[in-house]
Write a structure and sequence with these properties.
- The structure is a single chain.
- With about 325 residues, this protein is mainly alpha-helical.
- Helices cover about 65% and strands about 0% of the residues.
- It has 14 helices and two strands, in the order H-H-H-H-H-H-H-H-H-H-H-E-E-H-H-H.
- The protein has a two-stranded antiparallel sheet with strand order 1-2.
- Helix 7 (about 135-155) packs parallel to helix 9 and helix 7 packs antiparallel against helix 11 (about 240-255).
- The protein binds Phenylacetyl coenzyme A.
Length: about 325
């Protein structure tokens, strides 16, 4: 585990809130302002560590729970080639979860603790994964819109001030861009197909558009963490800025596909060179966060079952490690 490499005395002291002196905080902010990367053994304010653990672990949980909606279509993909591509994508998401858990472990929390927080409902994961995948077109919409939104949010995270998170994001973003393209290609194939296929693509866009916009989080005025996270250069853009960028690049893609974005208020503002879009239904977002989305219970149940089913693998890995350690010590 990465945490074994940390200076325990240091990290334990720093984890207690309010221990920092104004000089320490100013020196830390100066390093951030100078675009220096913060590394695991460096001094950092307790709140910076806490924010990163919160964000990275929630990001990791999202990747792992995010395997479920697409996993639902692995046995029903329309061809062997589509199945192989989808299988590779779902496995990539598992890999992303693992890099991210490892990255969070460098901050002094174990993967077991993070998983426990998720299973006990104390940690969040992205709202988007609480929606069902009803047709094959949903797999196209997830790649195109969900991975598209994920990339928009994650490219700036490659420049995040915390080194291990920033470095993990580089590979993740490369893989996400393959995911986005495969999703768009599924949509393109459907949109060039017969009327029923076009209708299936439109229906998927209708259902995934608004939840995709919600992925970027609450509006800036309601985003409790944004100001501090931007000061620490964990976040480089606000939630609303990234949402706007996503709308600006995605609407022309929908037009290219011949699909209609389900928003009566959507219009291009030539002067501002941005698409203006309608109000997001924030009550839906908050309900999903409270656990009342269409699939929250099912997602958590599946995750708990998978965790329990994998207990023997974890026990076998520990037994193997202990055997090797005993052999090395002898
Ligand atoms: N869902 O003050 P802010 C993917 C929570 S990966 C649920 O704005 P912050 C790949 C937020 O945690 C998708 N909760 O918070 C893939 C906070 O609650 P807390 C995941 C949300 O952190 C594709 C509260 O609301 N990506 O898709 C959401 O500054 C396909 C207040 O919000 C990441 O995690 C939400 N949508 O900004 C996998 C990227 N939005 O913690 C499979 C990294 C907000 O106080 C298939 N994370 N909340 O209890 C981030 O960039 C940020 O954490 C934000 C939120 C932008 C998500």
């Amino acid at each position: 585990m990465y945490t074994q490499g940390l200076d325990q005395a240091n990290s334990a002291a720093e984890l207690a809130d309010g221990q920092e002196t104004p000089e320490q905080l100013a020196r830390f902010q100066a390093r951030i302002d100078a675009e220096e990367k913060i590394e695991p053994k460096d001094w950092m304010p307790a709140a910076y560590r806490k924010t990163l653990i919160r964000q990275i672990s929630q990001h990791a949980h999202s990747e792992i729970i995010g395997m479920q909606p697409e996993g639902n279509w692995l046995t029903r993909a329309p061809s062997l080639k589509r199945k192989a591509i989808l299988l590779a994508k779902v496995q990539d998401e598992a890999g992303h979860g693992l890099y991210l858990y490892s990255s969070a472990e460098t901050l002094g929390i174990s993967r077991d603790q993070m998983v426990e927080q998720l299973l006990e409902g104390r940690a969040k994961y992205s709202s988007i994964f609480n929606y069902p995948t009803l047709s094959w077109a949903d797999i196209g919409a997830i790649g195109w819109l969900v991975d598209g939104a994920a990339i928009m949010n994650q490219i700036p995270l490659c420049r995040c001030s915390y080194g291990p998170y920033a470095r993990a994001m580089i590979r993740i973003c490369k893989e996400e861009s393959f995911h986005q393209r495969q999703g768009f290609e599924i949509m393109l194939t459907l949109c060039r197909g017969n009327e029923a296929q076009q209708a299936m693509a439109q229906d998927a866009l209708d259902r995934w558009w608004w939840p995709s916009l919600m992925m970027f989080g609450p509006s800036d005025g309601d985003s409790q963490h944004s100001a501090q996270s931007m000061k620490w250069k964990i976040k480089r853009f606000s939630n609303d800025e990234l949402r706007q960028k996503f709308v600006d690049v995605t609407v022309p893609q929908a037009e290219f596909l011949g699909l209609e974005v389900p928003d009566d208020e959507l219009e291009y503002d030539r002067e501002a060179r941005h698409y203006r879009f309608g109000e997001i239904d924030w009550s839906e977002f908050h309900e999903v966060l409270k656990g009342n989305g269409p699939c929250n219970r099912q997602r958590m149940e599946t995750r708990r079952r998978a965790h329990e089913g994998g207990a023997w693998v974890r026990e076998a890995a520990v037994a193997h490690a202990e055997k090797r350690a005993a052999k090395n010590a002898a």
